[in-house]
Amino acid sequence: MKIAVGADHRANEVVLQIIEQLKGKGHEVHALGVACESSSCDYPDQAYPVAKAVADGVVEGGILLCGSGIGMSIAANKVAGVRAALVHDEIGARVCRQHNNANVLCLSADMLGKRAIEQIIDAWVNTSFDGGRHARRVSKITAIEQGLDPTTVSKVDNAV
User: Which residues are catalytic?
Assistant: First the structure.
């Protein structure tokens, strides 16, 4: 899988471990938002290149980390075509893929330990979208993104 990775200063150490973990499992990693050269950087600056790469189809998914994961999730979800999910455990990682076709995984560097982060990433990477009734719901999310009323969407958009 081609995966873009980004992090702010709160996740500098963790992101390097994640990159090695992903490469070690055969994934192609694009470190797009990991160059915090000072003791502080702004998470939207790190989230944008990862989210844009996902939206543009350069990569199949993205992983973003900041102190809480909240800021990254908010910033990434502003990019059309991105469905970023803030996840705290393996169950959330699986469900966000199965039901929401989440293409960006957001994690908290401060609240999750190294082992938990590894397990969450493994669950997310190894889970597929279930489609079916969930595809219709994802199409409705896309409709909202386009400024449309989701209740007007009844068929599945092929762009999920």
Answer: 66, 99
